[in-house]
Amino acid sequence: MHARPAAELVKLASTFASDIKVSKDGVTVNAKSIMGVLMLAAERGSSLTFLARGEDAVEAVSRLVKLVAEGFGEAGEELQ
Question: Where along the chain do its domains lie?
Fold first, then answer.
């Protein structure tokens, strides 16, 4: 994942009160941390898993999954 899509993910995650984690290949990071998200080195075709705990957890995961599914607004950036 390049810096701009990672920043979009972190920006969206940071709008929620819930604790949000994102995982790839067994590595789990704080979805509100740009360094953590970049560390995942997610590429096109990668599978990400989101886990959120808190009052707005369901909405947070739903919006994050939508952001990823829509390719962060860029053609060719979609992940699974």
Answer: 3-72
Token pair belonging to 45:
């075709």
User: What is the set of active-site residues?
Assistant: 2
Q: Which pair of structure tokens corresponds to residue 77?
A: 């950036």
pLDDT at 78 over 60: no
Q: What is the pLDDT of residue 46?
A: 85
- Give the position of tokens 């990672």: 6
Classified by CATH at the fold level, domain 3-72 comes out as Histidine-containing Protein; Chain: A; (3.30.1340)
pLDDT in tens, 22-36: 999 999 999 999 999
Q: Starting at the edge strand that comes first in sequence, how are the strands of the sheet with 49-53 ordered?
A: 27-30, 19-24, 49-53
| Interhelix angle 3-13/57-69, nearest 10 degrees | 160
Burial class (CB in 10 A: 0-12, 13-18, 19+), 15: exposed
